[in-house]
TrEMBL record:
It comes from the Eukaryota. One of its GO terms (molecular function) is hydrolase activity. This is Alpha/Beta hydrolase protein. SUPFAM superfamilies: alpha/beta-Hydrolases. The keyword Cell cycle does not apply. Keywords: Hydrolase. Residues 38-253 form the AB hydrolase-1 domain.
Length: 269
């Protein structure tokens, strides 16, 4: 990230619960006046710095990149330590956080949004709640389905996936042991090494009481494209759910494609 000016900041989450969100703003040093914001939203169990290997590949683009830690993840977990985790938290809370953050970006510019898994779902919900918030949305293997709230939370397949996520181990004796343990899992073995190292570096906090490292996350805590106007469905062969971790170079290339598409659209206006 040495080709970027990197600024860390905090902002308040949507609602009146007093929650804070940690964000990082990355602007290519070679760019004097960016013409596009790119907003990155991570998945459950990860953190904003997971996007660095992808952002780092956009140093020649006329953009400003913003990534943030969703509620109770990464540095947002530290900011909200001691504040109760609401059991009734739902995906719309993340969507409202996104809308608030998008509305606060200064100076205002078109926004290309990129989200992985839950992050992509929250972006779609945000756009549905406030159409035309984003110039383009790239969702990476995100959960999409009917908006009926009586259907989505109780879908058996979704509940099975959620229970699996909640069983993830969150504590290790050291970062070295955490990495060694994670590499026993085929999911993490498929990750690009730079991404895995970024995850290990930024995604854990030191527990001074136990001398352990803890994941910054509370333990409790083609048809779709056809339904989207001008939507595209793209498959990266040989990947799993964690696409941005496995293929950061290809994701960055896709982002560059849509940066050019947005620029071409604006040039015709």
């Amino acid at each position: 990230m040495d080709r970027f000016s990197v600024e860390y900041a905090t902002t308040s989450a949507a609602g009146d619960h007093g929650l804070q969100l940690s964000l990082v703003i990355c602007t290519p040093k070679a760019i004097v006046r960016p013409a596009l914001n790119i907003l990155f939203v991570h998945a459950t169990g990860y953190h904003k710095e997971m996007w660095f290997p992808i952002i780092g590949r956009l140093a020649n683009e006329n953009v400003r990149c913003i990534a943030y830690d969703i509620r109770y993840h990464g540095d947002s977990a530290s900011l909200n330590a001691g504040k109760p985790v609401k059991d009734d938290a739902d995906w719309m809370h993340h969507a409202f956080d996104i809308l608030k953050l998008a509305g606060e970006l200064e100076p205002p510019m078109p926004i290309l949004a990129v989200g992985h898994s839950l992050g992509g779902t929250a972006l779609l919900l945000a756009e549905h709640a406030r159409p035309n918030t984003f110039a383009r949305i790239i969702t990476l293997d995100s959960v999409c389905g009917p908006l009926d709230p009586t259907v989505l939370p109780f879908n058996a397949d979704i509940l099975i996936t959620a229970k699996g996520a909640r069983r993830r181990r969150s504590r290790w004796p050291s970062r070295h042991e955490a990495k060694r343990s994670l590499l026993k899992n085929p999911i993490f073995c498929a990750w690009d090494e730079e991404v895995l190292n970024t995850y290990i570096q930024y995604g854990f906090a030191d527990d001074l009481a136990t001398n352990e490292v803890v994941l910054n996350l509370p333990g409790t805590a083609q048809e779709n494209a056809e339904r989207c106007l001008r939507g595209e469905y793209i498959v990266l062969e040989g990947t799993g759910h964690n696409i941005p971790m496995e293929r950061p170079g290809e994701i960055a290339a896709s982002i560059r494609h849509y940066i050019a598409a947005i620029a071409n659209t604006r040039a015709r206006l």
